[in-house]
C-alpha cells in the first residue's frame, strides 16, 4: 500500500520530480517545496541532485526533501509516490522544433515510465517532456504493457498554453490575468494548440485578423521564448509555474476535493478519432472523473480543430510506433 501521511485532516502525498536538476526541474522543485499540500518531495536526476536537494532543504517549510542520483536510485526515489512529474529531457534550442527532440526525449520518458510501473504503479503521472503529443502515448503504451495503465491518471501538462492565453488576453483587455479564463484545447505543439477565444472571459471583441494573430502568438509562444533567450534555453520558468499550478490541482483532488477543473492532454473520446486530446475535465480522487464538453466553437475554431487533426494523429502514431518497436 502506498505510504500516506496525515497532517490535520488532509493527506500529505509524496511527490517525485524526475529531472529535478534541470532548467524546469529546479524552479519547479522550489515551487513545490513551498506547497502546504506536499509531505515529501523526492528529487531525481542523473546529475547534481544532491546539491539541489540540499539547497531546497534549507527552506523553512514542512515539505521534506530527498535527492536521488542516477539510474540505480531511480526506483528508490519513486517508492510510495502519489504524484510523479516528469520534466526530464533535453530543452529546445534555436531552430529546433518539438519534433526534433523526439528521439532523445522519447527514450528518456520510456525508461522513467518503466521504473514507475515497478515502483509506484498507482501514482498519477504528469509528463512535461516534449514532444508531449507523442511522449504521453509512449507512456500509455509502457503502462499498458506492464498491466498498470490507468488512463484517468496519466496527463500531458498543457497548462503553459492556458496561462499564456490568459496573460496575452489580459494584456489586450487591460485586466488582471487572474480574472481571465480561456479554454485551450488540442495538443501541445504549434497548430495543435487551439485557444477557444470565443469562450474567453471577459469576452474580447477582436477582428478576425487580430483573432488569427492572437491564436498564432499563443501557438508560437514557446519559439518566442527560445528566440529571446538567444541560444541559452527555452521556456523554463513559465513552464515550472504551469507545472506547479497543475500539480496543485492534482494534489487537491488526491486530497478529496471533487470540484477541481483542469486542462490536460489525456486519453480522451471528447473528439472522435483523436485518442489523446487536451480539454477541460474534472479531477477527483481517482484522477479524471468527468470530461467537460467543448461547447460551441466559432467557425475559425472549427477550422482550427480540423487543421490540427492530421498533425495530432501523426504525433500520436509516432509515439505509439516508437513504444511498439522498443517493447518488441
Automatic annotation (TrEMBL):
One of its GO terms (biological process) is malate metabolic process. Residues 158-322 form the Lactate/malate dehydrogenase C-terminal domain. The keyword NAD applies. It is found in: Peroxisome. Keywords: Glyoxylate bypass, NAD, Oxidoreductase, Peroxisome, Tricarboxylic acid cycle. One of its GO terms (molecular function) is L-malate dehydrogenase (NAD+) activity. One of its GO terms (cellular component) is peroxisome. This is Malate dehydrogenase. It comes from Chlamydomonas eustigma.
